[in-house]
Amino acid sequence: MATKIHPLMFAVFFAATFMSYPASAHDPVFGLGPHTLYKGGVELHAGGHSEKSGNASEKEAELQFKYGLTGDWVIGVGVPYEFGGNEGTHRGSTSLSTKYRFWRQDRFAVQESMALLGRVIFDDGEEQAGVERNGNDYLLGITYGYEGRKWYRWASVRHRFNAETSTGMQRPDVRLVDFVGGIRFSPTEYQEPDWVWMLELNGELIENVTQGVGSVKKQLGGNQWFLSPGLMWTHRNFALKAGVQLLVIDDLSAGQEQDDYRAKIELEWHL
Q1: Which domains does the chain have, with CATH numbers?
Q2: Model confidence over 128-175: pLDDT tens digits?
Q3: 104: which strand partners?
Q4: Are 76 and 118 in contact (CB under 8 A)?
Q5: Residue whose C-alpha is closest to residue 49's, from 61, 65, 64
Q6: What radius of gyration do the chain's Cα atoms show?
Q7: Bridge-partner residues for 112, per DSSP?
Q8: High-pLDDT (> 70) share of the chain, %
Q9: Which residues 6+ apart lie within 8 Å of 205 measured at CB?
Q10: Strand, coil or helix: what is 258?
Q11: What is d(CA 78, CA 96) in angstroms, rounded to the nearest whole number?
Q12: Mean pLDDT of 105-109
């Protein structure tokens, strides 16, 4: 005689199985994923960024607030602060961002999704001397994510449209390309801390432009590719991400100094 399973028992079993999976749906460290918040959800985000190029180094900290308008649409605002250099500590440019997840497919322990994103970087910061902008910068992009019980992968393409400087010189646009793979070596339960190790390939394709006139012309543009190991640690509604970018291909125009390394650490709290 076949055993009958009450629908309520099946629902309880399914919920318990689903909740046993660790918190997921987070973006990589340097690239970008399609992660959004639930409707009415809030994300508090604090991050630090450091980079070194020759004898010069820069440090930046940023605070972000994000809000889920729906389960597929999130908006956010960010304010950075820059440290070091001859200008000392100063506030960077305020940014407004949005992301809309237009496709999602769920299977058992797997979620695939895609999202469109946009960002406005306002011309309101205390910019360093020589790089003052005359207008806002804009960023548009698309991203894909695969998040499973063990394996992760992300891909994204973004284009940043840069305004001219206050003196009328052209600032090159930049196309950002990211390919990311991640692995969870040891599956964990929902109540346990969760670790995902990542390896990213990040490309910066910089538009070729000429600045200046006469004998003081300067060529800008070229490509840089970085190999970036990173780590994502999550526990319930907290996430900590850290990584370092190591330059592997440098094809910048002569006179531009390549980056030796970049490092980033971020803390997210979902409410």
Answers
A1: 7-270 (2.40.160.40)
A2: 545 677 789 999 999 999 999 899 999 999 999 999 887 778 889 999
A3: 113
A4: no
A5: 61
A6: 21
A7: 105, 146
A8: 84
A9: 174, 175, 176, 177, 223
A10: coil
A11: 7
A12: 92
Indicate left, alpha or beta for 44 from its phi (over 0: left) and psi (-120 to 50: alpha): beta
Q: Report, as an integer, the average pLDDT of 204-217.
A: 79
Side chain identity at residue 143, one-letter code: T
Q: How far apart are CA 31 and CA 103, in angstroms?
A: 19
Check whether 190 has a pLDDT greater than 90. Answer: no
Specify the residue for token string 């809309």. Answer: 100
pLDDT greater than 80 at residue 119: yes
Alpha carbon 187 to chain centroid, angstroms = 25
**Phi, psi of 8, rounded to the nearest 5 degrees:** -65, -40
The identity of residue 184, as a single letter, is: R
Question: Could you please report the per-residue DSSP string of 100-169?
Answer: EEEEEEEETTEEEEEEEEEEEE-S-S-PPTT--BSS-EEEEEEEEEEE-SSEEEEEEEEEEEPPPBTTSP
* In the chain, beta strands by DSSP E: 42-53, 56-68, 73-83, 90-91, 95-107, 110-121, 137-147, 151-161, 174-183, 194-211, 218-235, 238-252, 261-270
